[in-house]
# Entry
Amino acid sequence: MLPPSAASPTTLRNSTSSAGLLPGESSTGSGKPSVPESPEKLVVLRQGDAAKHPLPVSDAPGAAVLSHSAPALSARRSAGLCAAEAINTEPDMIADGVFAGEGRAKSGEKIFLKMERVTNANRTQWEQYCQSTAQLTRHGRSVLTFAMRGTKAIQDENGATRYVNEQYEALADRLGQSREEFDDFINLLGRNGYAWSQGNKRRINAIHNTHAGATHLYLNPEAECYVIYASKTPDFQMPRIGDNSALSEPLTLKEYERLYRDLLICVGVDFPDRGSMHSKGMFRNPISSIARTHTGLSMILRGFSGAVVRKYFPDKQTLCCRPLSSMQYMISSALQPDDYRVIDYSHEEALTTAEESIREGQIFEMPMNTIKVSALDRLYRNHAAT
# Structure
């Protein structure tokens, strides 16, 4: 459960942090399809828990539903069976307030993209996901922190390296794993550089920074706001655990992985005025990050939002965000100097500052970025061509 002092994911509108992200790194879980059990079997719920720097514009062309069963989804599901198929970078509106597209991760996997309006019907699912992710990644207090902190490398009798953690009994209730499943997970942490003993601050900080993104996703059905996300399957739908946004008991690590294994990354956007959209709360599924597949998704997700907005909301010309310095590096590396502006920074200064912060392991929030929607659209449509 979130501490009393922590604000609800629905109320932290002013921060636009992007969390849990490393330059060029992204990843996913087991790859098995998500088959949620009956919600009552999972947890018991308790009631009550819980820039004004315009860019020159160029090249501008002229209620989410719970079950996205439109014919477009069936076509995408069939197409997904063919791994070698070309990526369709033309976004489609598949239901009222729901837009779909495809992408290819930097590591080669096909991904499925959605931009879905937040409504009273889907808000609870996203709040549950944000809360569960925040609980899983809170620095110093989460089950992932204890798992990473206690993992150490040893040599077996054949000289091979494996990883061990002696805290299984202490963490068992929060893990929900058998001892064999726990040992497999610990070896995954170690092999992919997430053990504290290895000193890889970038990867460990990326997990802990996920907490910031998960507590800043803006989910307000009364405003015109959307969640944009990437998944491993075209028909992924956010599971719902009972009727309350706040969970009275945290999900175990095993429950979290089973429910959200196909969800890779998400970000929120809203439309506060006629000419722009604002982005906030980008974060990776932490289990996805640890697996280190499906890399390089952050700018694809931003690009997809630009492609949707340019096609269906042509009056919106810019996206505004205040990214963490790790995300700033990705933005500045992917875009041309004329594609965006950062308050008080040139393109070169923003890129250098972000690069130095990553190298030194000091991640911080950058000033407001104002990005051309046309540049994001171009980025998305070209990303799978190389």
Notes: The chain has twelve helices and twelve strands. Residues 18-50+63-137+201-382 form one domain.
